[in-house]
Amino acid sequence: MKRVKKKIFHDYIAKQGLKSTRQRDIILEAFLSSDRHLSIEELYLKLRAKHPNIGYATVYRTLKLFAESGIAREMQFGDGQTRYEHVGEGEHHDHLVCTGCGAIIEFENETIETLQKEVAAAHGFLIQTHKLELYGLCARCRG
Amino acid sequence: MKRVKKKIFHDYIAKQGLKSTRQRDIILEAFLSSDRHLSIEELYLKLRAKHPNIGYATVYRTLKLFAESGIAREMQFGDGQTRYEHVGEGEHHDHLVCTGCGAIIEFENETIETLQKEVAAAHGFLIQTHKLELYGLCARCRG
DNA sequence: CGCATCATGAAAGTGATTTTCACTAACATA
DNA sequence: TATGTTAGTGAAAATCACTTTCATGATGCG
Question: What's the pLDDT score for residue A2?
Fold first, then answer.
């Protein structure tokens, strides 16, 4: 899985005439081996431990590049920070966001997707993307 | 409708030991008589025409107060600005957001709401709120 | 290796709030 | 009605989370 995504990214870099750098490889490895839904800040802090000389701007720019290459997706969960989640090929999912501990749980529901398409059709609307988030307390936080 | 919301707000103000001020009344009237999904900036500009001495910070603080009192709700549609929409009692709706012209169309779908509850239940999750937005092109922008 | 390009890091800049602060206005209470 | 206490206001400064700039450093094709 990691290898596939690394290849996708390197192919993208090459195709765009960009360069392969030590920093990009380090950030890519850190991103792929970390939690889904990481913010720039979180990834930056995680990296600083082992690579104190990597700048915030580089992490920011590289994450954008990941999104462009298709291995990551930008997300907003209302906490004011942009988060990047891993993208598997073709898959789509929505989220349960715990307002207690901040946990983000993914789920898929085909029926909901179908109904969304019906709603859009009824309004003559052409869907490009959608976003469904359920905010509340996870099983642990309901305590 | 306006009268009901004004009462709700004034009751809230009183209950919290806050004060009723000229500015709050002006902002409340402007909010209630305007488009749904207004940004702070938009409301501020609209107000400046008739009341050039009302500050941005006051509009910002008052809108927050509206949200706390329950007559408005904060929303993010990915354009980097917080928007406030009117809240009717008990009602809930979701949005179609046109990426072409920025139009925001509301819709309701009971079946989707029900399915959301099922998903939450399956994860032991207690829903507080949710957010469903379909991004794409509206009938007009599809051309 | 040479060098045209792209990349990086530190720091400055942005845009949208959010907070601070000195000054007012509300609303009991005298 | 005059006061005192407390909340509210507006202008300006401060935050926050990016985003861009710029001088310097890598890359990698020829």
Answer: 85
